[in-house]
Design goal:
Strands 7, 8, 9, 10, 11, 12, 13 and 14 form an eight-stranded antiparallel sheet that branches. A two-stranded antiparallel sheet has the order 1-2. It has helices at about 5-35, 40-50, 55-60, 70-80, 85-110, 120-125, 130-135, 140-165, 165-180, 190-200, 210-215, 220-245, 260-280, 300-320, 325-345, 350, 355, 365-380, 400-420, 425-440, 460, 465-470, and strands at about 60-65, 65, 285-290, 295, 445, 480, 495, 500-510, 520, 525-545, 550-555, 560-565, 570-585, 595-605. Strand 7 (about 495) and strand 8 form a beta hairpin. Helix 15 packs antiparallel against helix 18 (about 365-380). By secondary structure, the chain is an alpha+beta fold. The two termini are about 60 Å apart.
Length: about 625
């Protein structure tokens, strides 16, 4: 057999091995993905998709610095395909993960040839815990996985253009870059990576022609022009939307750099506690954020050991591999511009570097760049002449123990992340609440409270965290949702902590009946409270036995409100802002007098002593 035939056969084996590796990691990661459910932003995106038409304004809304018309389009479709469709979401996640793995394999094969060494950076990408937190969050999947697919595909197309000069490859590179931009603003750095890759590796002559290498860049002006035009158009759309989009808290976005000390701390924290540990198989330990998410929590000893190992790896590569310094500089620049700066311009002042510095979700797409940089720092390009600064030594396999340790650490870290309920808690809550709504009569009054913070945090999502919103996908329920209790509401229900419906009870102060009922007419009657209420918003539950319907004026301190009170025996509710030690009540206008019984004032809560609907919560 000829040498060329042997090489082709070896290349086929490498390609087949790479495909098998991608397939195996899909099975491995599916075990985690299938246990996840929607959370936080996921509900917001799908609810907003249900409420909106498929319009330009809907697609181009900038969500706290995130422009993802592709993700919003998918959310719009998801709302019309069953709402919280787990099968569709998980299938899409695994399909994108498969595409991202195969796309990276293709790029590595084009860059370095079908040599076994390319399986090392591919294996890193497939195993690294850097991508795991984003896989458990549908909103993060919509951003990061399309970019992980688009980045290597765009670089591959650009590489083919540099090699043969065909414009169709430029068109393909633009298309893949645009695809990435539809989902994540970080795709704007793809053309910059193309430029660096071309200048540093693809457009170089001999070792003595550095100046000529830069001149060769201009040979590819037919690529730089459309890349630049694409970025310019996207930038205009993004910044226009950024300054015009009204957020769900009715505020507009005004990005600005934080204090330099805060910026420096975040850069250090995200690099030393996020990027480096996860690149070496960490973080080994996780800090739970509820039941369905976690942030990195690497032990201090392993963090410092990781920094030392990283410094040694970089030093060895720079000593032996030509232009390894440029590879690591590229990674550092990407990390700074694509991972650090966007957070500094966005939410760093809200949560601080001490929290966000441990967030691996910001680094998910960076795993692809790390894999490419590993290849550039240690593997000669296909056909590259004189790739080494020094002759190869017997220690060229010294990386194998480190690779084994990183593999073991990655498996351990992913298993530790998966050792939690993940989506089960939220799935059970939504399932229980949905079942409860199916078991109450049409028109039942339900107090529309916020879902638990672990489902969707009201502090961030405001009205999108209400039960009526979260449970109203894909279709609204035929019940009467009440934002507040006011007037004679018959038998109102509310959700308990497990998602079951229970009668409303007023938790606070109670004024028992005093010899039947107290007559109340146009003159104020004072009801002294058993304790003094501080200023706030309270709900009063007033029992009555009236001969005719009337209207009550209820006063607490300086706060006054009017509510109806029905005929015969019943109760009415008054929501009032005020404070003090007594409640005063009178009838208004020429209405008939009322006779009032027990009064409770405080805050509405589910009555835990009353029967629940359903009796037992859903348990998946």
């Amino acid at each position: 057999m000829t040498a060329q035939g042997t090489r082709l056969r070896g290349g086929d084996v490498v390609l087949a091995t790479g495909i098998v590796m991608v397939a195996v990691q899909l099975v491995w990661k599916y075990e985690l993905v299938r246990r996840t459910f929607f959370r936080q932003d996921d509900f917001h995106y799908i609810i907003r998709g249900q409420e909106s038409g498929f319009t330009w304004d809907y697609l181009m809304w900038v969500d706290v610095g995130h422009l993802l018309p592709g993700g919003f389009g998918i959310s719009w479709a998801m709302a019309r395909l069953g709402g919280y469709n787990e099968v569709l979401a998980h299938t899409m996640t695994i399909a994108l993960q498969a595409g991202a793995g195969l796309a990276l394999l293709r790029l590595l094969r084009l860059l370095f040839g079908a040599r076994p060494a390319i399986l090392v950076p591919l294996g890193f990408y497939l195993l690294t815990p850097m991508t795991i937190p984003s896989l458990s969050w549908w909103a993060a999947v919509l951003e990061t996985l399309p970019l992980q697919l688009a980045l290597p595909m765009a670089l591959s197309s650009h590489l083919l253009y540099v090699r043969d000069g065909r414009i169709r490859h430029v068109v393909a590179a633009c298309a893949w870059t645009l695809f990435g931009l539809l989902f994540f603003v970080k795709a704007a750095f793809i053309p910059i990576l193309m430029l660096v890759l071309t200048a540093g590796w693809l457009a170089r002559g001999s070792a003595h022609e550095a100046t000529a290498a830069w001149k060769r860049l201009w040979r590819y002006w037919r690529a730089w022009l459309p890349y630049t035009a694409l970025l310019a158009a996207y930038s205009w759309i993004f910044f226009t939307g950024l300054y015009n989009s009204v957020q769900i808290n009715n505020a507009t976005q005004t990005p600005g750099l934080p204090d330099p000390a805060v910026a420096g701390e975040f850069f250090w924290m995200l690099g030393s506690r996020g990027l480096i540990p996860s690149a070496l198989g960490g973080p080994w330990q996780w800090r739970p954020i509820g039941d369905d998410y976690a942030m990195a929590a690497p032990p201090d000893a392993l963090t410092w050991a990781g920094l030392a190992i990283t410094a040694a790896v970089v030093a060895v590569s720079v000593r032996w591999r030509r232009r390894a310094w440029l590879a690591w500089s590229t990674l550092l620049g990407y990390f700074l511009l694509a991972d650090v700066v966007p957070v500094l311009l966005g939410r760093i002042e809200l949560l601080g570097p001490g929290i966000l510095g441990y967030e691996l979700r910001y680094l998910a797409a960076t795993a692809t760049v790390v894999a490419i940089v590993l290849g550039l720092a240690f593997i000669p390009l296909d056909g590259e002449e004189h790739p080494w600064l020094r002759p190869r030594t017997r220690l060229r396999w010294a990386w194998a123990p480190l690779a084994a340790a990183v593999t073991a650490g990655s498996v351990w870290s992913v298993a530790a992340y998966a050792d939690r309920p993940l989506g089960r808690t939220v799935r059970d809550y939504v399932g229980t609440a949905t079942l409860a709504l199916t078991r109450v009569p049409r028109g039942t009054a339900v107090l529309d409270t916020y879902v638990p913070p672990g489902v969707a945090a009201a502090a961030f999502f405001h009205d999108y965290a209400l039960h009526s919103k979260v449970l109203g996908v894909p279709d609204p329920w035929p019940v009467t949702w009440l934002r507040e209790l006011s007037g004679p509401v018959p038998n109102p229900l509310t959700f308990d902590a497990q998602g079951r419906l229970r009668p409303v009870a007023i938790q606070g102060l109670r004024l028992p009946q005093r010899g039947g009922c107290v007559p109340v007419g146009p003159s104020e009657v004072r009801f002294r409270l058993p304790g003094r209420l501080p200023g706030g918003v309270y709900t009063a539950q007033i029992s009555y036995l009236n001969s005719a319907e009337t209207t009550l004026s209820v006063r607490l301190g300086l706060g006054v409100t009017e509510v109806r009170a029905g005929k015969d025996l019943g109760r009415t509710f008054a929501r009032i802002a005020g404070g003090g030690g007594e409640l005063t009540i009178r009838t208004t206008g020429n209405g008939p007098p009322a006779c009032l019984g027990e009064i409770r004032i405080g805050h509405p809560i589910p009555d835990e002593t009353a029967p629940a609907i359903p009796p037992q919560p859903v348990d998946s």
